[in-house]
Design a protein that fits this description.
Elements: E1 3-6, E2 9-12, E3 16-17, H1 29-41, E4 46-48, H2 62-72, E5 81-86, E6 88-89, E7 97-98, H3 102-116, E8 123-126, H4 135-147, E9 154-157, H5 161-170, E10 175-181, H6 190-199, E11 202-206, H7 218-221, H8 223-232, H9 236-247, H10 260-267, H11 276-284
Parallel strand pairs: 3-4, 4-5, 5-8, 8-9, 9-10, 10-11
Antiparallel strand pairs: 1-2, 6-7
Length: 285
């Protein structure tokens, strides 16, 4: 497994997005644990989660608890960076809401610490801007958690370039990651990717394969990815992740998975080196 860096931590160049194992359509726990174990066995050392990855109002942190159980029951011996998030909520009616208030973020971090069973969270990210709370106040809470040693590294998610620059300043240059949506069908985060490249901040594309319901359609929806996949004898999904890795050394995709075979295929993308012509064709697709 090839590696990249988030802050001062070396991680696998492909991470595991664990959300599909806790929201709508989630598998049973046995398959979820097998999926996380398959990721670890494939050399993945970055797992992305959030306290909001759950279905019912009474099970906040379902995904974090699942990951803690999977790590405790695996004897691979590798150091794994668990990246979680706070500030997004699921009331239990299928909707998503925000609470970026400092009080909520600090309480959410404490709850995530307990569920993950750690003294400090490896990477804690402000999940989504809250229009009711000044962005500086939300990021200031993340700074306070960093200063207090509750988290080892700080990141933001769903941020625009101005918010990235603001967070970078508030955190005193200690912003290590930006997690935004980016895929063949959703490329409007290119400016954020370029800014992260300029600042040396890890860029973590979420839903890099198009999302839970559309990942399997990537090849049929984007012909160049399918053509190159057929020529290389691999899946279009693997081509997609290799394309993202080729865009910048700061890119660390976090494809979601709920089956062992899909995360194994995604992990193999680090060994697929595309030619400059192939990258150019996919950039233009």
């Amino acid at each position: 497994m090839h590696t990249r860096r988030i802050g001062d931590v070396e991680v696998s160049a492909i991470g595991l997005g664990a959300m599909p194992m806790s929201i709508e359509g989630r598998p049973d726990e046995t398959r979820s644990l097998a999926t996380i174990h398959a990721a670890l066995d494939a050399g993945i050392t970055l797992i992305d989660t959030a306290d909001a990855y759950h279905l019912h109002a009474a099970e906040v942190g379902h995904n974090e608890t699942l990951i803690a159980k999977a790590l405790a029951s695996h004897d691979g011996g590798r150091e794994v960076l668990v990246a979680t998030k706070g500030g997004h909520l699921r009331p239990g009616d299928g909707s998503w809401t925000q609470d970026g208030s400092p009080g909520h973020l600090k309480a959410a971090c404490e709850a995530s610490l307990r569920r993950l069973g750690v003294e400090a969270i490896g990477l804690y990210q402000f999940h989504r801007p809250d229009p009711k709370v000044p962005y500086a106040e939300s990021v200031g809470a993340i700074r306070d958690l960093l200063d207090a040693g509750k988290i080892r590294m700080a990141g933001i998610s769903n941020a625009d370039p101005d918010q990235i620059r603001q967070a970078y300043e508030i955190l005193g240059g200690r912003l290590v990651s930006v997690q935004n949506q980016f895929s063949p069908a959703f490329r409007s985060s290119e400016p954020e990717l370029r800014l992260c490249d300029e600042l040396g901040i890890a860029f973590l594309p979420w839903s890099p394969l198009g999302g839970i319901s559309r990942a399997g359609e990537l090849g049929s929806a984007h012909a160049p990815f399918d053509r190159i996949a057929q020529a290389r004898g691999v899946s279009p999904q693997r081509v997609c992740l290799a394309w993202m890795l080729a865009k910048s050394p700061v890119v660390v995709p976090i494809p979601g998975a709920s089956r062992p075979e899909t995360i194994r295929d995604s992990a193999a993308a680090t060994d697929l080196v595309l030619t400059a012509d192939e990258v150019a064709e996919l950039d233009a697709a």
